[in-house]
Amino acid sequence: MLSYLDPARPQPWSSFLEQVDRVAPYLGKLGYWLETLKHPKRCLIVDVPIHRDDGSLVHFEGYRVQHNVSRGPGKGGVRFHPDVTLNEVMALSGWMTIKSAALNLPYGGAKGGIRLDPAALSRAELERATRRYTSEIGIILGPGRDIPAPDVGTDEQTMAWMMDTYSINQGGTVTGVVTGKPISLGGSLGRREATGRGVFIAGREAALQQNLELVGARVVVQGFGNVGSVAAQLFAAAGARIVALQDASGSIINPAGIDVNAAISHIATAGGRLIDFPGAEQIDNEAFWDIPCEFLVPAALEGQLDATRAARVQTRIIVEGANGPTLPVADDILAERGITVVPDVLANAGGVTVSYFEWVQDFSSFFWTEAEINARLESIMVAAYKAVAEVAEEHKVSMRTAAFIIACTRVLAARDRRGLYP
Ligand code: NAD
Questions:
Q1: Fewer CB within 10 A of the end CB, N or C, for the chain?
Q2: pLDDT at 270 over 80
Q3: Which pLDDT band holds residue 355 (cuts at 50, 70, 90)?
Q4: pLDDT tens string 28-73
Q5: Ligand 1 proximity of 299 Cβ (cutoff 6 Å)
Q6: How far is residue 34's CA from residue 20's CA, in Å, rounded to a whole number?
């Protein structure tokens, strides 16, 4: 996998800044406020010391960035990964500002993370790291201030520990401080699947727009975690063929179609690695990018589609499950080649949308059925897709720039109305 930790490669925050610059010509008078988006409101770096199970002491570095809160509290995931940096978290928080506004959710953008490898820690060590991190960043969290959720390397258990730690420090249970919680602790039905479901809906809408038949369409997915696996399941359920998958263990291919549920069960078994899945053949990680398909779904980490890969991929539609998988230079090449990119800030917004539902349900202590949640998610995603497609058509710009136009207009109009303090 291409890594932005390689100093020769562009950093995620520079990609975000470049995307913001591309919107400038379309903002009219609101352009006066554009610099706001280039300066995260608040960046907190915290030391996370824990005792290892063997009694030794280890320190990790943790971050929480609130990029913009003009339209509401900060909202964004928490990532546990060995490559987490402040630069990455800043970019991810910026994309959350854009995503919340593009979907018209009443949130700003935030993100957090700890630079650690969750696979190298025991469950007890992970719990200690999560609790210490939550306590350290607790001064800027709260249901009306900043609401974390799961991201790469974190899950509903992480959110349960975060909610419990924050609640203990507050002296009472505060379910609305995080989303993506277990159902038994005020979580929402449908949240675990929401991001992958949104990716599928966005891909389906793009196919509809291009008169592309889903049945029999070939789909290639990078990242087979929460987002990638659910998106693959839904594409397969709609009759598409999942011809290749890649995760941290390697890449596999089966032109006749990979049995997605069997691959998920295989990984769920102790020590099961995607690359050993018996229903497909292993292929080289770089050859993965040459596989012909109708849909390519990057659902792992940032910066995967660079100029070289953008010139090589053999697909019609890229649906970005991951945040920031395509570099700006690659966007231009893909546009020239006529490949549609449904951008992250739209395609993977299903997660934050159902997080919003969870937050609302926690406030009212009244919980909706899964059918209600999926129906509301469907209508919000479809409306957002159509709005972005319309703006793209109107200005003859990419769907990414169109989503940024809609989002930046909303964020900067709020900034303009609120004015500057003092
Ligand atoms: P996850 O931890 O559940 O899965 C991550 C997947 O990426 C795993 O399959 C892992 O093996 C794979 N991966 C990691 N390193 C890799 C490498 N070097 N090469 C290839 N694959 C690699 O995480 P997730 O929640 O599915 O998140 C995936 C992406 O989706 C991230 O960019 C995240 O920010 C984004 N996203 C997640 C959510 C959410 O609700 N979880 C919402 C919006 C966006």
A1: C
A2: no
A3: very high
A4: 999 999 999 999 999 999 999 999 999 999 999 999 999 999 999 9
A5: yes
A6: 8
pLDDT, tens digit (0-9, with 9 covering 90-100), for 149-183: 999 999 999 999 999 999 999 999 999 999 999 99
Give percent above pLDDT 70 in the chain: 99
Tokens found for residue 382: 């479809």
**The token pair that represents 310 in the structure block:** 């953008």
Does ligand 1 have an atom closer than 6 angstroms to the CB of 244?
Answer: no
Query: Can you give the three-state secondary structure of the chain, one letter per residue?
Result: CCCCCCCCCCCHHHHHHHHHHCCHHHCHHHHHHHHHHHCCCEEEEEEEEEECCCCCEEEEEEEEEEEECCCCCEEEEEEEECCCCHHHHHHHHHHHHHHHHHCCCCCCEEEEEEECCHHHCCHHHHHHHHHHHHHHHHHHCECCCEEEEECCCCCHHHHHHHHHHHHHHHCCCCHHHCCCCCHHHCCCCCHHHHHHHHHHHHHHHHHHHCCCCCCCCEEEEECCCHHHHHHHHHHHHCCCEEEEEEECCEEEECCCCCCHHHHHHHHHCCCCCHHHCCCCEEECCCHHHHCCCCEEEECCCCCCECHHHHHHCCCCEEECCCCCCECHHHHHHHHHCCCEEECHHHHCCHHHHHHHHHHHHHHHCCCCCHHHHHHHHHHHHHHHHHHHHHHHHHHCCCHHHHHHHHHHHHHHHHHHHHCCCC
Which residue lies with its CA nearest to atom 16 of ligand 1? 248
Distance 413 CA to ligand 1 centre (A): 33
Mutate to test the pocket of ligand 1, among 195, 201, 221, 296 (most ligand atoms within 8 A of CB): 195
To the question of pTM greater than 0.85 for the whole model, the response is: yes
What the block records as the tokens of 361 is: 């349900």
| Amino acid at position 133, single letter | Y
- Report CA Rg, the chain: 20
* Residue minimizing CA distance to atom 42 of ligand 1: 351
Q: What is the pLDDT of residues 89-139, one digit of tens each?
A: 999 999 999 999 999 999 999 999 999 999 999 999 999 999 999 999 999
In the beta sheet, which residues pair with residue 261? none
111 in active site: yes
The pair phi, psi for residue 110, each rounded to 5°, is: -150, 170
Closest to 20 in 3D by CA, of 408, 397, 308, 417: 408
Q: Active-site residue among 29, 41, 75, 111?
A: 111
